[in-house]
Design goal:
The chain has 516 residues and is an alpha/beta fold. Helix 3 packs antiparallel against helix 4, helix 9 runs antiparallel to helix 10 and helix 12 packs parallel to helix 14. It is flat and about 100 Å long.
């Protein structure tokens, strides 16, 4: 594998194939058993892991400028050299120069631009980063990498903690980034917009493909068809030779020819039977109870957090069968609206009016408390299905969402955050409501699992309202867009591309959205 300066490369493969392990080998935190990793001697790296490190009292701006990481060690180094009388040394001048640059107003201005692009408000710059959620801490670390401008960015699932507008801003930024990018992502549209080379990990090998992710899929299919045809033709040839040898080896006049055919078989360089490309799992969501034509309505909703007014007099109607996506800048109130629809959030004024026979369920990213820690993964799903699933069917669904073999017998109490998210998603699919509210359902899912979810939700007979930063997911499912900004909700009765075409006049947010 080779990554060149300014090249944009995606590393793909099934969950557990070794993508993050390969990152650790490249970065030197994991030694290979054999082989070598070679670098340009002057190269600089920037690495964004999937999980953020714990922070203390540093501000968001301190993280983005690098002061949180470098300032205290530099001050300690300078103090030690001053005490030792080494103020004329080269190391002393390098350290003091670096400390001075960390407080350069130009560095602060650049860091603020990156933070704004990633969804921070100016009032957030001086907040303690450690008091914020893990997703916001990750954004601060990502801003730091963009401020550094390393020669090679290694990004492990960089879109996981971004909203749609921030994701599209990052996508636009990386397209014009002067350095190289090596990324792991489950967002196919993000990869399509950025990458020019794909490396696939398959059967412990790296296979390279030119083009973006869609090009890679097309090449995989073409290669499989070609190799499959070659394999079948060779097997047909071998079968013919073997048949001749079997028929005539006991015939004296033909024995030498039969032996010649067997030798011919031995000389043939055998073509391995190709593995078929992985396909999404097709799962039929059970029929939910039938509701009325009006799924749910909101009348005159007033919602505020202290002095911050989110909605004032909001009216909204969701019709049966709609597939509605909520879009808008971070902090506009998308998750708040979803919680109001779910009945999870108390508002100050107005009325929430579910439709006739409405059965409402809310899927958030933080539902681990709904799991019984004493039950196995399989038991949770069978229990959620209320007897509609056989064990083999339940295992099939679990397998498509990356719970394979003995993993279905793991207790839910020992699952990771991502595994709990996936398990809760399965529980929704096997016992669906007729109004399903979902907040970022694709987080922690690989590309094929996202495709499986799309196929399932596309056939879902109920009403869907969701938030997502996955443009491919939105394009495949949304039939209506609600754009939320400054307390106003504007409906676009069409898909995502229709929204982009019609939603002129939204200033900076519009510019970010059209970058996608």
């Amino acid at each position: 594998m080779q990554v060149n300066y300014s090249e944009r490369v995606a590393l793909v493969g099934p969950n557990g194939a070794g993508k993050s392990t390969l990152f650790s080998v490249i970065l030197g935190s994991n030694e290979p058993d054999a082989g070598a990793v070679e670098y340009d001697e002057w190269i600089t790296f920037g690495y964004l892991p999937q999980e953020a490190e714990v922070l203390g009292d540093e501000s968001v701006l301190d993280v983005a400028t690098g002061r949180a990481e470098e300032e205290k060690p530099l001050e300690a180094q300078i103090a030690a050299m001053e005490k030792a009388g080494e103020t004329d040394s080269t190391d002393y001048h390098i350290a003091t120069d670096r400390l001075e640059k960390l407080h350069d107003p130009k560095l602060d201005a650049r860091a603020k631009r990156m933070l704004k692009g990633l969804g921070y408000k100016e009032t957030d710059f001086f907040r303690k980063a450690g008091e914020m959620s893990g997703g916001w801490i990750m954004r601060a670390h990502l801003a730091r990498l963009l401020v550094m401008e390393p020669d090679l960015l290694l990004l492990d699932e960089p879109t996981n903690h971004l909203d749609l507008v921030s994701l599209l801003w990052l996508q636009k930024y990386l397209r014009s980034y002067s350095g190289g990018v090596l990324l792991i992502s489950h967002d196919r549209e993000f990869m399509d917009a950025i990458v020019e080379t794909v490396y696939e990990i398959s059967e412990q090998r790296l296979n390279s493909f030119k083009g973006n992710y869609t090009d890679y899929l097309a090449q995989c299919e073409a290669n499989y068809l070609q190799q499959s045809a070659a394999y079948k033709n060779q097997q047909k040839e071998i079968a013919g030779l073997q048949e001749f040898a079997d028929r005539f080896r006991q015939v004296a006049s033909k024995a030498s020819q039969a032996q010649s055919k067997l030798k011919q078989i031995d000389r043939i360089k055998k073509i391995e039977k190709p593995l078929a490309p992985r396909k999404p799992f097709r799962f039929q969501i059970p029929e939910p109870p039938r509701g009325g034509q009006r799924a749910i309505s909101l009348h005159g909703i007033h919602m505020a957090y202290g002095d911050h007014q989110v909605y004032k007099g909001l009216d909204l109607n969701i019709e049966r069968g709609e597939r509605t996506v909520l879009v808008g800048p971070n902090g506009a109130g998308k998750s708040t609206l979803l919680k109001i629809l779910a009945g999870e959030l108390e508002f100050q004024k107005g009325e929430r009016d579910p439709g006739h026979n409405a059965v409402v369920s809310y899927f958030s990213q933080h539902r681990s408390a709904t799991l019984d820690a004493t039950k196995t993964v399989l038991e949770e799903v069978l229990s959620a299905s209320h007897g509609t699933l056989r064990e083999d069917e339940a295992r099939g669904v679990l397998g498509s969402f990356l719970f394979r073999k003995d993993e279905v017998y793991k207790k839910t109490g020992v699952l990771s955050g991502g595994e709990k998210t996936r398990l809760n998603l399965i529980k929704f699919l096997v016992d669906p409501p007729n109004l399903l509210l979902m907040d970022e359902p694709t987080t922690h899912l690989d590309i094929l699992t996202v495709e499986s979810l799309i196929l399932a939700l596309d056939k879902y007979a109920g009403t869907l309202v969701f938030i997502s930063h996955d443009v491919h997911f939105i394009r495949k499912l949304a039939t209506k867009v609600l754009h939320i900004n400054d307390g106003a909700v504007r409906a676009y009765p069409g898909g995502y591309d229709y929204f982009l075409e019609k939603s002129g006049g939204f200033g900076n947010e519009r510019a970010a959205l059209t970058a996608g």
